[in-house]
Structure formats: structure tokens, C-alpha cells
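Hey, resending since the last one bounced:
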Amino acid sequence: MGNEYKQKIAENIAALLKEKGYSQQDLADALGVNKSTVSAWVSGKKTPRMDKVEDMAALFHCTITDVLGYTQPEETDEFRDRMKQEYGVLFDLVDKASDYQRELVEDLLRAFIEKDEE
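The C-alpha cells again:
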């Protein structure tokens, strides 16, 4: 996983801790991990597993996307046309999916990619 992505997740976790008034120890206790694990997430040395991201989202009353820090890039007609040519059927299916369904698919793909990177 790229350092930029790790850093973004780290910044988001730190911001959510501050916003909700939780300490790193509070988060560790709530998730059943060591404080050193949370510290590694907040410093960007490690990234949390998907199940812990889901647990954080539930604890912080936010979305998985809020924890991960993913933002949708601005879409242009040129980009859409190129993607439709390259990914055809997948693009059509994604177009028909609800926001929730897209988020689930995105999370699933990220989990597969992360597993391959291990």
C-alpha cells in the first residue's frame, strides 16, 4: 500500500479520535487491540485490517469511506468515455448500482488488493 494512502488513513483516524474525544487507548480497548497497534495506525506505519476499519466506522458513527479517506475524483466526459471503452460491462453495472452498493464493491476490491499486496 502506498505511503500516501497510509498517511491519509492515519490522518483520518487521528482526526476522528480528536473529534470524538477518544484516546488511542480508548480505541484500542474498543477494538480489542493493543495501544501500540493503534499508535502504528495513527503514525501511518501500519494500516488497519478491513474488519477494524468497519469497527471504527461503527464506533465513530461514520462511514468506512470516512475512515479510509477516499474521495471520488472529479469525473469528466472524456474520463467516462475512456472507462466505458476499457471496462464496458462493469462500468454499466456500476452506473446502475446505488451509492451503498458501490461502496460495498469498492471495499471488497480494496480488501482483495490489500490481500494481494501482503
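The chain has seven helices and no strands.

Sorry for the duplicate.
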